[in-house]
Amino acid sequence: KLVGLRASSSRAIVRLSVAAMAFAARRTILRAATARAAQAAPRLAPTPSLACAWQRPAAFGAFPGASRRFMSIEKHTPDEVLSKLDDFRAEVLSTNWADYLNLVYSVPFWEATFEKLTVLAQPYVKEQAVGSKFAQIQEMMDVLYQCEDVRDHLNELAELCTRASGFMGTGYAAEEKVENLDEHAKLCGEAYDSLLAKHPEFKPKIEQTVGHGLAVLRSKHKFAWSTSARYFF
What we know:
The protein is an all-alpha fold. The protein has helices at 2-40, 78-93, 100-121, 128-164, 181-198, 203-218.
C-alpha cells in the first residue's frame, strides 16, 4: 500500500510540473504576440484635455529651481508705502547682524519683504520722501550682504585657528594651520576700511559684524588693522 501511494504521489507531482511548464510557455508566447501587435498599431497623440499630468507642459514655477516674481494689484498711498518702508528698515537695523543663526532664519523673509516693497514703491519712487527712504533701504541691504560675507569668512578663519591648536589648545589631534592667514587678515581689514569709507551711516552695524569679527580673529592670530586699539590690541 505504501509503495502504491508513493507511486501515485510521484505521478501527481509530475503532472503538476508539466502543467506549470506549459502555462509558463503559453504566457511567454502571449506576451510576445501582444508586444508585436502594440508595435504595429499606429500611435495617437493624446488630446490636451485628456492628457495625463506628466504629459502636459509643466507650469512656470513647478520645479524647485524656478523662481516666481512678486505681483500685486494692491494700491497704497505714499504715506502707507513710506510707513511700510520705515517698519522694514527698523526691523532689519535692530537685528544683530553678527548673529549668523538669526540671519539664516531672517534673511529669506527679509528678501521676500524687500521684493514686495520694491513693487509697492515703484509708483512713488520719484517722490522725495519715498525715493530717499527706498534708496536707504537698498544701501542697507547691500551693506548687510557685504558685512555678512566678511564676517562669515572671519568666523571660518577663527574656527580653523581653533582646530589647529588641537584639543583644548593642548596640540593633541591638531589640524593643519592656514599658511597664508596674514593675507586673509589683511584683506578682511581692507574690506572693513572700505565699508566704513563707503557707508559711514552704517558704521555701528559694520563694527558689530566686521569689527568684532576682526577682534575675535586677533585673539587667535596676531595681525594689525586700522582700529585694533579700540579692542586693546
